[in-house]
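Model it.
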Amino acid sequence: MHAPLWRVSYRELTDDLMASGTPIRVCAVNDAIVGADTDLVENQCGCGGGEGRGKKRSLSTSPPAPLVQVGEFFDRALLARLEEGSWDTFGENGEFHSLALVWECILPDALLGQATTGT
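Modeled.
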């Protein structure tokens, strides 16, 4: 990964993230932007904090379905959908938050860009 991330292209950051093998999950969505019909701010990845942390809650799947859903893996398929929807693929405009599950990868391999997980 790069440091600092400022002025590094999203394509380069995405390639580094995917090469690291670090699993990343969407842990919160902005209902006003995403279009979900719920007050959901956290899920099973537990990055929402506070009471009820780690509990899975549901999003509305009535048409149109949200472009991004809590609990979903941040992967190339999600990135492609976000690009098609003209969204910021890293959620920098407040569309969503993500959590890197760093405890599920082998740190030296992730730093070297080798997609190896600790599972």
